[in-house]
Amino acid sequence: MNILMLHGINHNMFGKRDPAQYGTTTLDEINASLAALGAELGVTVQAYQTNHEGAMCERIHQGYTDGVDAVLINAGAWTHYSYGIRDALAILTCPIVELHMSNIHAREPFRHVSVFAEIVKGQICGFGVNSYLLALRAAVAAVDAAKK
Asked: Which of 7, 11, 22, 132 is labelled catalytic?
């Protein structure tokens, strides 16, 4: 099973950016944790991060072409306004799990809305780095359930 992890805008700054909100774990450490859990679950996790919206759309298109089994996405601020990324995600035929380290529903009002909500399998937020691991488990379960 191949899972695509998409990290959005500013996530390359994890560990430095607003540690009170996002902690001190770096993106490389998050990716290593996902790879380790993936190995445990018998899946491969490919991670991708960009600060460029068009590049994110192109990577989603590549995921479709590659036939990934599921997509995890933490799009950061794009979650709340990028209809371009939403439309790219809508092309996918696999489960999509949206995730956020912080509880977006307990933050500024503009963060309460996800333009992806209608097309994702589900959303996990508020558990810090564990949101990534929970999302991976949810994606694997969704793929397994679809096979039955």
From this structure: 22
